């Protein structure tokens, strides 16, 4: 597999991370450099780890993994998106915003897993294609991290321009991504 092909795959895998980063940045208002680093680092790390884990799992778990991966991603994104919508509709105080910071704790891990589950399946296909998974994982992780930084920058601009309404939109985007993942897998 050429580096150009790998980059295109990495870009495709990073689109969920980009969209979630936009929504997360909108929810935060003005994201600090530390928040941008945390989200981009974790999204990149999880995007890099999942293909390696999928590659190691190989064909033996492919069928069982494909039967539930979309439900996990859907559940995580809907829960986090629903919480963002609730906070937007109920005029979240600053303490509530800090408690629901998507760059911390369980939210960070949940979003990282939800945005990288497709990379796990890609790793399984890499094992069938005899792709050097370590190089592929590194490219996928770097691209996902960079797209997350770009998404957070875009989300900050949208949030500053449109205010709290964008937090509701961000939550709805997360729910929409979850629904898209579920529909993609169920309609195959």
Describe the fold and architecture.
The protein has 188 residues and is mostly helical. It has one domain. Helix content is 85%, strand content 0%. The protein contains eight helices and no strands. The chain has helices at 3-28, 33-57, 62-66, 69-89, 94-99, 105-129, 133-162, 165-186. Helix 1 packs antiparallel against helix 6. The chain is globular. It starts with a helix and ends with a helix.
Properties at a glance:
188 residues; mainly alpha; 8 helices; 85% helix; 0% strand
Approximate shape: globular
How helix-rich are the residues, as a percent range? over 70%
| Number of structural domains | 1
Low-confidence stretches: 93-98
- Portion of residues in beta strands equals under 5%
List the helices and strands and how they pair.
Elements: H1 3-28, H2 33-57, H3 62-66, H4 69-89, H5 94-99, H6 105-129, H7 133-162, H8 165-186
Helix pairs in contact: 1-2, 1-6, 1-7, 1-8, 2-6, 2-7, 4-6, 4-8
Describe what is shown at a glance:
With 188 residues, the protein is mostly helical. The protein has helices spanning 3-28, 33-57, 62-66, 69-89, 94-99, 105-129, 133-162, 165-186.
């Amino acid at each position: 597999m050429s580096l150009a092909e790998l980059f295109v795959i990495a870009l495709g895998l990073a689109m969920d991370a980009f969209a979630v980063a936009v929504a997360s940045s909108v929810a935060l208002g003005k994201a600090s450099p530390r928040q941008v680093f945390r989200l981009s680092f974790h999204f990149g790390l999880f995007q890099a780890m999942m293909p390696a884990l999928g590659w190691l799992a190989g064909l033996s778990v492919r069928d069982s993994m494909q039967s539930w991966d979309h439900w996990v991603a859907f559940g995580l994104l809907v829960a986090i998106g629903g919480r963002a919508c609730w906070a937007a509709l109920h005029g979240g105080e600053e303490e509530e915003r800090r408690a629901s910071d998507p760059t911390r704790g369980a939210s960070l891990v949940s979003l990282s897993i939800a945005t990288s589950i497709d990379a796990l399946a890609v790793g399984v296909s890499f094992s069938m294609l005899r792709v050097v998974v370590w190089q592929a994982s590194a490219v996928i992780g770097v691209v996902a991290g960079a797209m997350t930084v770009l998404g957070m920058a875009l989300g900050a601009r949208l949030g500053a321009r449109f205010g709290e309404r964008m937090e509701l939109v961000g939550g709805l985007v997360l729910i929409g991504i979850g629904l898209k993942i579920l529909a993609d897998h169920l309609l195959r």
